[in-house]
Amino acid sequence: MKTFDYTIKDAIGIHARPAGLIVKKAKEFESAITMTKDGKSADLRKLMALMSLGVKCGDTVTITVEGSDEDSAASAMEQFFAETI
After folding, report:
1. Which member of 15, 24, 27, 40 is catalytic?
2. Using CA atoms, how far apart are residues 84 and 65, in angstroms rounded to an integer?
């Protein structure tokens, strides 16, 4: 299992557009990828679950990656967040 913390920099937070991009990226991997905020977790392959976390600019979230391709998936997701969200 791999984890990393990320502080959201998008001024609006995770709204529909970035959430859709996150879901699309997460679906590229076999590993289970989840986001946790304030004790609530969501599968990053499920748009509505991700949106229900209500992540705003400045919030710090924890991304957890677990599965057969977790090393490459965690690295790719961390880079994706840094460049996109």
Report:
1. 15
2. 18
